């Protein structure tokens, strides 16, 4: 072993090589930020420099951790001379220019994080020579200039790949199907196009998939949920997918967050509303602004872990199922801009954790429950006071009448209160307990002003009507 190290030194590869490489790296850092690297000098031991970790035996640099150091300038090509480097972390700095192709010389590299900088240009093909890489983060830069290289498929040890918030384009190459150890794959907020990348269906261990804000289109495979059964978070919003939402999403038993809003999906067999037996219970499900039609099925009440459900801007019809009242963890429910009809089920009053309830622009009628904003008729019931966590109460511009419930003063978390444009009468509720809070975007004093203004407008209207 000692002979091997002597041989390396004979060819000029030693800790002195690392020292020179790092000093050259420092020289390319903008002068106003070099103070962070003040320990990088010839009078200090290399292995004591800020962010530097050396191996125990050979004293070569194996880790460089400068994330969040507020460094600027460019990344020096000499970084490629750190031949023992296993981990390079430059996240959250202000480096500009291109990623040096010499990074591809770091054949021992397992971890590379260049995210949250201002790096430009194309991804150097040489990076994909680093065949031991298991985690690669290039997100939140200004990378552009073409497609995702097919040689990404060479990194068969890769488990996490993040490229989101850049400007790459074209189709995702089929060669990445070899990355069958992938756990997290994020190419969101680029300009990728084509159908859903078929190579991804080979990622059977995938848990986090983020492809939002691209130009993907076409249909999803019907066996989607069988091929990707381990998903925890699935974000596909703001694309051009169409067709039915696959019923096999019910096979994804660990799915917690599902977003496919702002596409062109159709059908009512959603991940949250597939026919019994339901096997998933995500925490959040956002399917807004699609072409989903039909009734909301009764089986939705089985999703007892659901905290947020958004179906705004679809083509839903029929009655709102009473089983909605079984979702006791629900904090947000948004059904605006559909054609749901009939009465609001009283069971909504069971949702005591509810903070946001939006039902505007539907066809509801009859007696209603709290926090609604529709073309509704009826009265505002006393059980509004049970919703002590309610933040938004929207019931403006409806046909509500009768007395305002005295229990309104129990809604101590109330921030937004909109009740104008109705036909309330009788005694004004006591809302003295609604205390102001600096953290609220609409303070209770403003809510009180809204109520007073509503009362004044109401009595003014009555006086006008008498005359």
TrEMBL record:
It comes from the Eukaryota. Keywords: Glycoprotein, Leucine-rich repeat, Membrane, Receptor, Repeat, Signal, Transmembrane, Transmembrane helix. Its main location: membrane. Residues 16-54 form the Leucine-rich repeat-containing N-terminal plant-type domain. Residues 64-261 form the Disease resistance R13L4/SHOC-2-like LRR domain. The keyword Signal applies. It is a single-pass membrane protein; Single-pass type I membrane protein. It holds the Pfam family LRR_8. It is found in: Cell membrane; Membrane. PANTHER family: INACTIVE LEUCINE-RICH REPEAT RECEPTOR KINASE XIAO-RELATED (PTHR27000:SF642), LEUCINE-RICH REPEAT RECEPTOR-LIKE PROTEIN KINASE FAMILY PROTEIN-RELATED (PTHR27000). This is Leucine-rich repeat-containing N-terminal plant-type domain-containing protein. It comes from Brassica napus.
């Amino acid at each position: 072993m000692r002979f091997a190290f002597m041989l390396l030194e004979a060819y000029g590869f030693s800790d002195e090589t690392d020292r020179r490489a790092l000093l050259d790296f420092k020289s390319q850092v903008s002068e106003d930020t070099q103070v962070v690297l003040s320990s990088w000098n010839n009078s200090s031991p290399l292995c004591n420099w800020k962010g530097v970790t050396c191996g125990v035996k050979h004293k070569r640099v194996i880790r460089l951790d400068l994330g969040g150091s507020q460094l600027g300038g460019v990344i020096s090509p000499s970084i490629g001379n750190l031949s023992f480097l296993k981990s390079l972390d430059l996240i959250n700095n202000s480096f500009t220019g291109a990623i040096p192709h010499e990074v591809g010389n770091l054949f021992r590299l397992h971890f590379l994080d260049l995210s949250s900088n201002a790096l430009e240009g194309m991804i150097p093909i040489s990076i994909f020579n680093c065949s031991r890489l298991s985690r690669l983060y290039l997100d939140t830069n200004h990378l552009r200039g073409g497609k995702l290289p097919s040689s990404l498929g060479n990194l068969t040890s890769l488990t996490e790949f993040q490229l989101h918030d850049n400007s790459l384009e074209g189709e995702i190459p089929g060669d990445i199907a070899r990355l069958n150890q992938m756990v997290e794959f994020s190419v969101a907020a680029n300009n990728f196009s084509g159908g859903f990348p078929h190579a991804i269906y080979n990622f059977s261990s995938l848990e986090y998939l983020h492809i939002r804000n691209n130009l993907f289109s076409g249909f999803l495979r019907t066996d989607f949920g069988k091929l990707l059964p381990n998903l925890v978070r699935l974000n596909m919003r703001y694309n051009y997918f169409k067709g039915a939402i696959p019923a096999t999403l019910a096979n994804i038993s660990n799915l917690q967050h599902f977003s496919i809003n702002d596409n062109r999906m159709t059908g009512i067999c959603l991940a949250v509303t597939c026919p019994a037996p339901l096997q998933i219970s995500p925490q959040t499900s956002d399917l807004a602004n699609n072409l989903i039609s039909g009734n909301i099925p009764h089986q939705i009440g089985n999703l007892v872990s659901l905290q947020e459900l958004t179906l705004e801007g679809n083509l839903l019809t029929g009655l709102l199922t009473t089983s909605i009242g079984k979702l006791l963890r629900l904090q947000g429910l948004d059904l605006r801009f559909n054609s749901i009809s009939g009465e609001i089920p009283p069971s909504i009053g069971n949702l005591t954790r509810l903070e946001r309830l939006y039902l505007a622009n539907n066809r509801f009628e009859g007696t209603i429950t709290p926090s609604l904003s529709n073309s509704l008729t009826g009265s505002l019931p006393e059980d509004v006071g049970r919703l002590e966590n309610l933040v938004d109460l929207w019931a403006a511009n409806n046909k509500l009448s009768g007395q305002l419930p005295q229990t309104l003063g129990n809604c101590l978390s109330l921030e937004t209160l909109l009740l104008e444009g109705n036909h309330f009468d009788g005694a004004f509720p006591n809302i003295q307990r609604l205390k102001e809070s600096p953290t609220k975007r609409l303070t209770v004093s403003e809510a009180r002003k809204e109520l007073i203004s509503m009362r004044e407008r109401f009595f003014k209207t009555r006086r006008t009507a008498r005359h």
